[in-house]
Write a structure and sequence with these properties.
The chain crosses the membrane at residues 145-171, 177-197. The chain is of the alpha+beta class. 67% of the residues lie in helices and 14% in strands. Strand 6 (271-281) and strand 7 form a beta hairpin.
Length: 373
């Protein structure tokens, strides 16, 4: 009885092993050709896959269930067995996200690479543009007289040739008279044109003084406070600002010119100090400020504004107030200067008297010596 049981057990094990081998070949190996399958079917004593499957369908179920519940022992082949990840979708999502993140980083990196040279180039260009503008202004200031003279000579020669050509076409004149005559005429035209342009671009302080005195003498409030008539003095202080040729965005332009003028005035009742600011606007004098500081017997000085206000008085960092101090000091020093002048005159008179007495004594001595001989 023991032999049949042992033989049946060994047969079951052999069939199970053959079944697993055939299942593995069915899943992992390519399907055999028809010729090969026909050859194998003719070989005796080789059980077919269907026969083995039908034979061990019942026994295989129990063996597989037992195999699943039992823990397999680690073997050498299991160490090198490749195991796929548990969540392939998550892996694919992670790889996609990594690709997107890397592409964004690459784009940002490329953008930074191209932005930094662009900003550096623009900043360098702006610095060089400012440097070029400053160099141009410095060159014009150093060589302004030479440039104006060369321009005047070229214009004079051009005008001379044009007038000489026109006159020679219609009138027959001698060559010498025509040349020198039209040369003098062209020189006069260029000179008057230069003076006119200079008067349009600059500010004349004497003209500003006359404009201010005209306004003051026609102001009823000023005349009532200071008393008529108002008269000025030769003491004046003025500062010119602006003007000249500049380069803005590689385009030459002219700066507007300003004149800050301060001078004292005197009325029949009080004295005052006039502050004026004038701007040359398209060749016309635009008066921005006209104020009079009147000292009072009690209290601080009173400031009367005919044009402008306190904000305009503080333009340029209080430039008018800076001019006011030396003028006030000069006005206060007039008496001291008069005293010094009187002392110097007395000293000069005394020195002349001593010199005359010395000469008189020398003459008397000469006469006495001549009479004794």
């Amino acid at each position: 009885m023991s032999k049949p049981s042992s033989s049946s057990t060994s047969a079951r094990l052999i069939r199970g092993l053959l079944l697993r081998r055939l299942q593995y070949n069915d899943h992992h190996l390519p399907q055999p050709n028809r010729s090969f399958s026909s050859c194998t079917s003719t070989i005796p004593n080789v059980p077919s896959y269907s026969a083995i499957r039908n034979f061990s369908s019942k026994t295989n179920t129990s063996l597989i269930s037992q195999f699943q519940h039992s823990k397999p022992k680690p073997s050498f082949s299991n160490i090198f067995t490749f195991k796929p990840p548990h969540n392939p979708p998550n892996l694919s999502f992670t790889s996609t996200g990594f690709r997107f993140f890397s592409s964004v980083n690459n784009a940002n990196f490329a953008k930074k690479i191209f932005d930094k040279p662009a900003t550096a180039l623009s900043s360098a260009f702006s610095r060089y543009r400012q440097a070029i503008g400053l160099q141009f202004e410095a060159f014009f200031k150093r060589n302004s007289l030479f440039l104006f003279g060369a321009t005047a000579v070229l214009l004079c020669a051009l005008l001379w040739r044009i007038m000489f050509g026109i006159a020679n076409t219609f009138v027959g004149l001698s060559e010498g008279m025509a040349k020198y005559g039209f040369l003098a005429l062209s020189s006069a035209i260029v000179a008057f044109a230069g003076l006119y342009i200079r008067s349009r671009l600059t500010i004349n302080p004497d003209k500003v003084y006359r404009m201010a005195m005209r306004r003051l003498n026609t102001s009823a409030g000023i005349l009532e406070v200071m008393g008529a008539p108002l008269s000025g003095t030769e003491l004046r202080a003025y500062v010119m600002s602006g003007g000249g040729l500049t380069l803005k965005n590689f385009k030459p332009s002219l700066r507007t010119k300003r004149c800050f003028l301060i001078f004292p005035i005197r009325g029949s009742e009080r004295k005052g100090l006039v502050s004026v600011e004038v701007k040359n606007k398209k060749g016309q004098y635009d008066m921005k400020l006209l104020a009079v500081d009147i000292p009072m017997a009690s209290g601080p000085d009173q400031r009367l504004f005919l044009i402008g206000d306190e904000e305009e008085y503080k333009v340029g960092g209080g430039l008018i107030s800076e001019l006011r101090d030396p003028v006030v000091k000069a006005m206060a020093a007039i008496k001291e200067f008069d005293d010094l002048d009187q002392i110097e005159e007395e000293e000069d008179a005394e020195r002349e008297l001593q010199e005359a007495e010395r000469k008189h004594r020398e003459e008397i001595e000469k006469l006495e010596k001549g009479g004794s001989q």
